[in-house]
Design brief:
alpha/beta; three-stranded antiparallel beta sheet
Length: 167
């Protein structure tokens, strides 16, 4: 197999952006297309257990996510009146220098990932999607919704659970 030089990622959510950062760190160029013009899911948090923190550490983003969030070393459960029912420790899978778990707003996570992907050299196009693509035999040729043509060695469908691309 030829060396992978460029990847086109359809979907600029958590998975697509994380992949772009990891690939760019390995000198594989990436274009990320995200349908939404802005990450704006308000009122939604995302929990990052130790295995996620460990993965974020591997791409250099664990500290930024912890700083933007709410780290903890235990889970607490309360009744309707706010009385503590149980406090259960969380394993520190990411290491003793990391919390067992952290949570942060989804928009904060997206911003951290977009900024890191761009810093790593990825081309992130918000408000843009894949209009068409075809296999050339040695990669793919794609047309974006904003009229750009992109040649890539690999196309990744990271466009969500109801992915139109994977159909």
């Amino acid at each position: 197999m030829a060396k992978l030089e460029k990847v086109l990622i359809s979907g600029g959510g958590v998975g697509g952006l994380t992949l772009a950062i990891a690939l760019q760190k390995r000198d594989i160029a990436c274009d990320v297309l995200e349908l939404k013009a802005k990450h704006s899911v308000l009122g939604v948090g995302i929990i990052q257990p130790g295995n996620v923190l460990r993965a974020l550490r591997s791409i250099g983003l664990m500290e930024a996510c912890i700083a933007a969030g709410h780290p903890a070393n235990e889970r607490r459960y309360h009744d309707n009146d706010g009385n503590l029912l149980v406090a259960a420790p969380v394993s520190r899978i990411a290491g003793e220098d990391a919390p067992g778990i952290s949570s942060l707003p989804r928009v904060a996570l997206h911003q951290i990932l977009v900024d890191a992907a761009v810093r790593a050299g990825a081309n992130v196009a918000m408000g843009t999607t894949l209009a068409s693509h075809h296999d050339t035999g040695n990669g793919i040729e794609a047309l974006t919704s904003d009229g750009r043509r992109i040649h890539a060695d690999l196309l990744v469908a990271a466009d969500g659970i109801r992915s139109p691309l994977r159909k």
